[in-house]
Predict the 3D structure of the following.
Amino acid sequence: MGWIPAASADPITVTATPISSFSLISQQTRFGGLEWRGGLELQSTDGRFGGLSGLALSKDGSELLAVSDRGFWFRVRLAYADGRLAGIGDAEMAPILDGKGKPPKSKVVADAEALSPWTPGIIDGKVIVGFESRPRAGLYDLKDAFNARFKDLALPKGARQGPPNRELEAIGRLTRGRLKGSLIAISEGNRDANGDFRAWIWGAKQNFEFAIKPYDDYVVTDLTILPDGDLLTVERSFGTSVLPGMAIRRIAADDIIEAGAVTPQLVFSGRIPLYTIDNMEGIAVSESIGGDILITLVSDNNYNPSLQRTLLLQFALKP
């Protein structure tokens, strides 16, 4: 449909500084199953900017939509040069509205952590937003631009029962295979008796819980759904006693079964100071002009730009 101006959105100034290399110790471009395609560090003096926690891209990768954990939409155009992420334009923000058309009244209510298009590659239509501190999932129809209102998607009961601020972190909609039409959600710190992350399928013909085996000390912070129906998760290791780390893992859709425990395939893992990594929270898929599947990642700076950064990293997914 193309770019839709939103009457309720405000233009903001965001600067984008190119990141020359993902590796901080070499000029290599291949990292496990990922091939470096450029990155940007985003900065703004606008107090609303930051906290980006959920991410979606248009099919061709030219437009980016994100949500922040203070309850804002962030939308921007992406520019490329020589097949690499090179810059941004037309940045704008707007509050995420509730079912009555009102902006959130508190951080607890505003805590948007996950974003996924209803239809792959379409970010100016229906999108799903997951909220963590007061766990819920909402459908927003962006044909109404940012005037879109929350429509409840009725989270499974178990998805609302995790530890405070460690509940819903990843959400999506499956559009292929035997689970076609189902919604999927993954928790950050809501674990079962085996220590596995709890996850849920619901909203279509099947409704069930399954589990995801953890990798090291990483926790799931977002998911995206690949064109073949498989899932990619972005996972972070982040805390006062560890160096920040990022892991990308792949879940085969056929491995998701009721009461089952999935062990995802590791695509990449790494930490500072070897790689350009921060508090990685969002992941999205798009396609390049050459047909590669592109993976874009964003970090949450926790509204603390003096200590953390908003990084936008892009890779091609490789065998």
Q: What stands out?
A: The longest strand covers residues 84-95. The chain has a mean pLDDT of 94.
